[in-house]
Design brief:
This protein is mainly α and about 190 residues long. The protein is about 60% helix and about 10% strand.
């Protein structure tokens, strides 16, 4: 006999043994002794992914803000800096949940804010950076991303160094952390 719960066939309970004999289209829950329809399992997986995206969104915004600050520090955003942003997006597992276009769109929005109001936009970007790096290790990772972005165009700009020092201060990292990150990437 098939149990029905909320209109779904949940499976057939076996009299002997402890297992479930599950009908096609129904899967057994790993945590509870119930069967879950495959459609519901797919829906739960989608919800889980959306929740992870929601939790990682502040970090995405922090990465885009830091990259925008560094890229605009010397006045223009070069093609090599945009290419570096793409490489960062592809290499970070924290951003793999997002469509790469979302990160690029956030970057473009931050660049537009910085071009409209340099001082106010600069402060907004620093706030986004600090709010998006609550997880352990995120501040160090964001600093390394900022340094990699500054080295993308092959020029060592004093303006970019100044911005990275400000990012470092906003993240609460030691002033020597930026120099250490530059040295590590130069090797």
């Amino acid at each position: 006999m098939v149990e029905k719960r909320a209109g779904y066939a949940t499976g057939v309970r076996m009299q002997q043994g402890r297992g479930w004999r599950v009908k096609p289209g129904v899967q057994k829950s790993a945590r509870y002794s119930i069967a879950i329809p495959t459609e519901a399992s797919t829906l739960f997986d989608r919800f889980r992914k959306e929740l992870q995206r929601h939790r990682q969104r502040p970090f995405l915004e922090a990465v885009a803000a830091a990259c925008a600050l560094v890229a605009t520090a010397d006045g223009d955003v070069s093609f090599s800096e945009r290419a570096r942003l793409d490489a960062v997006v592809e290499s970070l597992s924290e951003l793999s949940l997002f469509d790469p276009h979302e990160v690029v769109d956030a970057f473009d929005e931050h660049v537009a804010v910085l071009s409209e109001d340099a001082d106010g936009g600069h402060n907004k970007m620093l706030k986004r950076i600090t709010s998006g790096t609550g997880k352990e290790g995120a501040a160090d990772l964001l600093l390394r991303i900022s340094v990699a972005m500054s080295l993308a165009d092959g020029r060592d700009s004093a303006d970019e160094h100044k911005v990275i020092d400000q990012i470092c201060a906003a993240l609460g990292l030691a002033p020597t952390a930026a120099a250490a990150a530059f040295d590590a990437l130069a090797e």
